[in-house]
Amino acid sequence: MIEGRGITKTFASRGGVLGSQSVTALRGVDFLIPRGGAVSFIGESGCGKTTLGRILAGLETYDGGQLIVGDTDLSTLKPKAREPHFRRVQLIHQDPYSALNPTRTIESTLRDPLRLRAAQTGKPASWVASQTEELLSLVGLDPSYVLPRYPHQLSGGMRQRVVVARALTVEPEVLVADEAVSMIDVSLRLGILGLLRQLRETLGVSILFITHDVATARYVGADGELYVIYRGQVVERGPVETVLADPVHPYTQCLLSAIPVLHGLERPGEDRLVPKEPLDEKMEPAGCLFAPRCPFATEVCVSERPVLGRLGGTPQHHACFFPASRHVVATPLR
Ligand SMILES: Nc1ncnc2c1ncn2[C@@H]1O[C@H](COP(=O)(O)OP(=O)(O)OP(=O)(O)O)[C@@H](O)[C@H]1O
Ligand code: SF4
Ligand SMILES: [Mg+2]
């Protein structure tokens, strides 16, 4: 189990359009990834999804809050002592092309981390070879075909499977899949998503699925929770199907309304919404972060910021003064 409590992160600006302003990437994010469970984060570009995934994998620091892995609050440990905990979380990169060293065969890519583990755990050399083959089979690849090859000799889907196999060499408890299929040919995506689902079942590994594509979050994290992030704040969260069928936060409603409708096959959700304004990242509203764009904003929204709270006695949470269930996702025509 991994829990985040009030995780915050601010970056000094890279310059560019934001000038010298700093960027608040995460604003007190709470989350819980249960063992063997799936959690999906969705939100538009720049909302802080990757930052959160990188923090979990120990690739980025956080400024405030607590990250609790198992029973250990990592904030209380020295950086060196955090490393073994971060190894339990492995990141699957968006781009399988750059994630693998092009000058090394797949065999050499997988062998080195396995050798290290064999040395640490006193396993014989023969274990490395058998484990290499086992991991490749687990991710649906034929070891005899793949092992002698270089990354460029494989398809995008095969490469992403190798990336998953490499992540599994350290027996992680959590796989963070950050837009893991967005750069893969559409025809191969379902295979990778199915693999992530299968790993949850066979290895009990938890999946943190980061995406701006609702359909893939729905597929991989069907029985888990969906977190909707807006400008670094979780504005709605709850069981995936509940949030999709009955979103109560206007931002979620706008986000889901933007999913293209398959005209002739689907009926658009009757309450579809569009934001009033485009996003202006330079503006830092005093009240609700979504107020400048929200069709339902009132005076209180402009002066006060709503915090994430529970919707009645339901498992759904929202950060809106006026939550209202609206149906925005398209439904199939009968
Ligand atoms: N190293 C960095 N230095 C400065 N700003 C950064 C850095 N990394 C991220 N940011 C900023 O933090 C915010 C969140 O970025 P992040 O990459 O987490 O968003 P994201 O939700 O993953 O977006 P996308 O969907 O485009 O991948 C953005 O405004 C981004 O510009
Ligand atoms: S708090 Fe107000 S501005 Fe913010 S999302 Fe809810 S209705 Fe819109
Ligand atoms: Mg990202």
TrEMBL record:
SMART domains assigned: AAA (SM00382)
MF GO annotations: ATP binding; ATP hydrolysis activity
Pfam families to which the protein is assigned, alphabetical: ABC_tran (PF00005), oligo_HPY (PF08352)
ATP-binding in keyword set: yes
GO BP of this protein: peptide transport
InterPro entries, sorted: AAA+_ATPase, ABC_transporter-like_ATP-bd, ABC_transporter-like_CS, Oligopep_ABC_C, P-loop_NTPase
Key words of the record: ATP-binding, Nucleotide-binding, Transport
Domain ABC transporter residue range list: 2-256
Protein name stated in the entry: ABC transporter ATP-binding protein
Species this chain originates from: Rhizocola hellebori
